[in-house]
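Quick one, tokens below:
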């Protein structure tokens, strides 16, 4: 028995040390590991908030995202910036906030939850942080930019703007109002090829609708203006119907309505100032929107 106790204690100490080494040093999941990452990776103090083109907050540390990661490694200065952004918008209730999440081309296939890409997922992550400071999500809109580079030193851009009547509409990227671009479809076709983000979203919508029979799903197809008005109207509808078929095959029994706006509701210019095609704009305009609505409001 006397031999057993010291041996057992030694075994326990070795076991605890091994567990600590695996969790903290190998998996980097301990608080100390995060502090180490923050100290080792430089953060340029170039983050700013612009309002209608003018800089209103500046010289804050850029956010840090590890490669293929949605969650930021926050430092105290990042939190001060978010608080300052929220306070600015509280003082300017007529303005909206646009958060543009940037990602490397090499991160195209990175896991992004419900979202089409990791840039949107990063913007949504920060949107949630701002909500913690009391900023309504109705005043926050997300965008994304793909960067062709080896490193990402400025992963987020913040712009506060006064809404303009002639401005392009902004999209909401939320569970109740989600949009996917045409990367989920073959070029100029309704052949549906859902990516991982959409598959995850559709599975969650199915679960939601199973327990909420008083909700319906409205699917709306949008296109660019490259082809004829009639072609784009038909293409938008065909894509909406293809997406509806996907949900039906999942077993969704709630009402699903489909519609097409064709090229009539762009969210970005389809052409450049010189008249050439704006490939980034047309790609954003080719999209399908999914909206969950309560049918109780119909009564």
């Amino acid at each position: 028995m006397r031999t057993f106790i010291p041996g057992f204690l030694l075994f326990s100490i070795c076991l605890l040390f091994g567990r600590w080494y695996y969790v903290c040093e190998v998996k980097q999941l301990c608080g100390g590991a995060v502090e180490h990452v923050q100290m080792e990776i430089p953060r340029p103090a170039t983050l700013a908030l612009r309002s209608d083109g003018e800089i209103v907050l500046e010289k804050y540390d850029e956010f840090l995202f590890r490669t293929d990661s949605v969650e930021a490694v926050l430092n105290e200065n990042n939190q001060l910036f978010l608080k300052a952004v929220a306070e600015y918008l509280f003082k300017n209730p007529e303005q909206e906030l646009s958060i543009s999440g940037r990602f490397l081309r090499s991160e195209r296939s990175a896991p992004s939850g419900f979202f089409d890409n990791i840039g949107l997922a990063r913007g949504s992550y920060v949107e949630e942080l701002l909500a913690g400071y009391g900023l309504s999500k109705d005043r926050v809109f997300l965008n994304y930019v793909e960067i062709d580079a080896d490193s990402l030193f400025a992963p987020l851009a913040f712009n506060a703007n006064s809404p303009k009547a002639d401005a392009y509409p902004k999209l909401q990227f939320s569970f109740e109002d989600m949009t996917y671009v045409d990367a989920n479809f073959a070029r100029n076709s309704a052949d549906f090829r859902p990516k991982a983000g959409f598959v995850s979203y559709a599975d969650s919508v199915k679960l939601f609708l199973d327990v909420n029979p008083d909700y319906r799903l409205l699917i709306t197809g949008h296109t660019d203006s490259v082809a004829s008005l009639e072609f784009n109207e038909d293409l938008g509808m065909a894509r909406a119907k293809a997406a509806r078929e996907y949900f039906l095959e999942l077993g969704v029994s709630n009402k699903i309505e489909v519609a097409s706006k064709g090229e009539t509701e762009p969210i970005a210019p389809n052409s450049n100032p010189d008249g050439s095609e704006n490939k980034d704009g047309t790609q954003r305009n080719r999209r399908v929107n999914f909206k969950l609505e309560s049918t109780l409001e119909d009564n």
